[in-house]
TrEMBL record:
Coiled-coil portions: none
Protein name as catalogued: Tetraacyldisaccharide 4'-kinase
Chain sites annotated for binding ATP: 47-54
Record-linked InterPro entries: LpxK, P-loop_NTPase
Keyword presence, Lipid metabolism: yes
UniProtKB keywords: ATP-binding, Kinase, Lipid A biosynthesis, Lipid biosynthesis, Lipid metabolism, Nucleotide-binding, Transferase
A GO molecular function held by the record: lipid-A 4'-kinase activity
Gene: lpxK
Organism: Flavivirga amylovorans
Length: 336
């Protein structure tokens, strides 16, 4: 795969020009971005793969749900439905996608969860329902420029920051680095817990934020327990289990478990893996399975796995949570 990426290096300038030209058309107003009466906060990235969008959306939900009627709007990647879908008691990972299904399972009493590949239509549909939301959180929509969000949060990882990357197909960027200029907040995710001030300053010098941009740093916090559909267990009591991951980058999770001194085999699938019958038959043979919350949403439907399938919750810790919380709430105050 890496060799193929290098072979495709001559395509990089073409991809760069196409995405640059598309963005320029939006910047000049030739292609139209639609603004909405509802405040819209977009969480996205420049690169492909796991930068931590789901934990960031959940952070925003926790921050806002007590004071505002919140809706999340996602594309619903790999779902088996089309058009606008509003999650209800019959929703599944197949009908709305694994990440929206995760939002629904965790926050169904507090928020609305919707999916639509056409984000403008999705926002219009949310405005037409009885209990209209007061704020919409757009998941993974930084490149969806048909919507003009009021507030953009751009995520980039500590180990693979956008400013050291190039565009597809040789690199991982969906668009040129200059796209970061559209962000109001740039969040460097998956940082070491003990990231020094000197390291933060070095990253800031490479990001070179605009006057109106703020840069924050976050790390992953793993729970000390794993959770099943019926019970919880402490991590320290686990032994000889199977770790199942279908996410973009499982390395931080694997590193965390190893640092705990735990012994496990790792079945590593591609991001958003669709578990097939042969996969389930293989998992049936395992005695105890630990997975991510996203993968749990796809696997918990299988009765044979119910008693041995657990997930490890994660959350994010932001270096200056008070400041970012104030920026987001100040934005909403200007719109409501």
């Amino acid at each position: 795969m890496i060799f193929l990426r290098y072979i495709l290096c001559p395509v990089v300038p073409i991809y760069y020009l196409v995405t640059w030209f598309r963005n320029k058309l939006y910047d000049l107003g030739i292609k139209k971005s639609m603004s909405h009466k509802l405040p819209v906060i977009c969480v996205g990235n420049l690169s492909t793969g796991g930068t931590g969008k789901t934990p960031m959306i959940e952070y925003l939900i926790d921050l806002l749900k007590k004071d505002y009627r919140v809706a999340t709007l996602s594309r619903g990647y790999k779902r088996k439905t089309e058009g606008f879908q509003l999650a209800n008691k019959d929703a599944t990972a197949e009908s709305i996608g694994d990440e929206p299904f995760q939002f629904y399972n965790k926050f169904k009493e507090d928020i609305l969860v919707a999916v639509d590949a056409d984000r403008n239509n999705g926002i219009k549909q949310l405005q037409s329902i009885g209990d209209v939301p007061e704020v919409v959180l757009l998941d993974d929509a930084f490149q969806h420029r048909k919507v003009n969000p009021g507030f953009n949060i751009l995520l980039t990882t500590y180990n693979n920051p956008y400013f050291k990357d190039i565009v597809l197909p040789t690199g991982n960027l969906r668009e040129p680095r200059r796209g970061a200029k559209r962000a109001d907040i740039i969040m460097v995710t998956k940082c070491p817990e003990n990231l020094s001030e000197a390291e933060r300053n070095a990253i800031l010098r490479q990001i070179k934020p605009k006057v109106n941009q703020r840069v924050f740093f976050s790390s992953i916090s793993y729970s000390n327990t794993v959770i099943s559909s019926t019970t919880t267990k402490p991590i320290k009591g686990l032994s000889d289990f199977t770790l199942v991951t279908g996410i973009a980058n499982a390395s931080p999770l694997v590193r965390f478990l190893k640092e705990k001194g735990l012994k496990f085999e790792h079945l590593n699938f591609k991001d958003h893996h669709e578990f097939l019958e042969q996969d389930i038959l293989e998992l049936d043979k395992k005695d105890f399975i630990v997975t991510t919350e996203k993968d749990f949403m796809r696997l918990k439907q299988y009765e044979t796995l119910r008693d041995k399938l657990f997930y490890l919750p994660i959350s994010i810790v932001i270096n200056d949570a008070v400041k970012i919380n104030k920026l987001i709430k100040d934005f909403l105050k200007t719109k409501l």
